[in-house]
């Protein structure tokens, strides 16, 4: 049973370019979460999605960031016009369906974004 | 709002000794869960242990145990018989049913031979 997959593992972008980060949840999982870890800090929640729905985006910056989890395919975290402050590790986690009892979140290996 | 506080930025321990990593939390929700994750230098997040707020007994997983003191709102991680491979960042996190985890700032553990 494959775990949560993220690609790419490392991504380098120049200021002003777009970054697309992909997350394939574990088989059977329908909930996806994105977290950001700035250097020397803990993980901060960004967004929680279910298939075709954004459930909670309270941690997403208001501009340039968007996320989707389509009916088919991976979840995508998109950062437009990247700036140096976007350099961080972006982690995806997934959990099985089950409402508020589904506390288990399985993390992917993360994508390290470097903005030059 | 939920909050996790980890007051130890760094801890040192000798191999084979036990070490306690501190975690205090704040939440007004009666139902919640507490997690510990390990993040080695390679960067992945490794789940270690989970404690539910209604669990009567402290959680244990191999060499890891969670010292849960509900009245004090603390959930300290105890690692027994430390190994060199335990050197890593350790994060405490809380989940309250709103689906997101709230993490602390972490403690860097260094195990020396």
Task: Give a verbal description of the structure.
- The complex is a heterodimer of chains A (116) and B (113).
- By secondary structure, chain A is an all-beta fold.
- Chain A contains no helices and 11 strands.
- In chain A, the strands form 2 sheets. In chain A, strands 2, 4, 5, 6, 9, 10 and 11 form a 7-stranded mixed beta sheet that branches.
- In chain A, a hairpin with a 5-residue loop joins β4 and β5.
- The radius of gyration of chain A is 13 Å and the shape is globular.
- Chain B is mainly beta and 113 residues long.
- In chain B, 0% of the residues lie in helices and 52% in strands.
- Chain B contains no helices and 12 strands.
- In chain B, strands 2, 5, 6, 10, 11 and 12 form a 6-stranded mixed beta sheet that branches. Chain B has a 4-stranded antiparallel beta sheet with strand order 3-9-8-7, with no helix packed on it.
- The radius of gyration of chain B is 13 Å and the shape is globular.
- Classes of the chains: A mainly beta (116), B mainly beta (113).
- Chains A and B meet through β4, β5, β9 and β10 of A and β10 and β11 of B.
Brief write-up:
The complex is a heterodimer of chains A (116) and B (113). Chain A contains no helices and eleven strands.
Keywords:
heterodimer; A: 116 residues; mainly beta; globular; B: 113 residues; 6-stranded mixed sheet; 0% helix
Helix content of chain A: under 10%
Shape of chain A: globular
pLDDT averaged residue by residue of chain B: 94
State Rg of chain B: 13 Å
Number of helices of chain B: 0
- Give the SSE string of chain A: EEEEEEEEEEE
Largest sheet of chain B: 6 strands, mixed
Distance between the termini of chain B: 41 Å
Mean pLDDT of chain A: 92
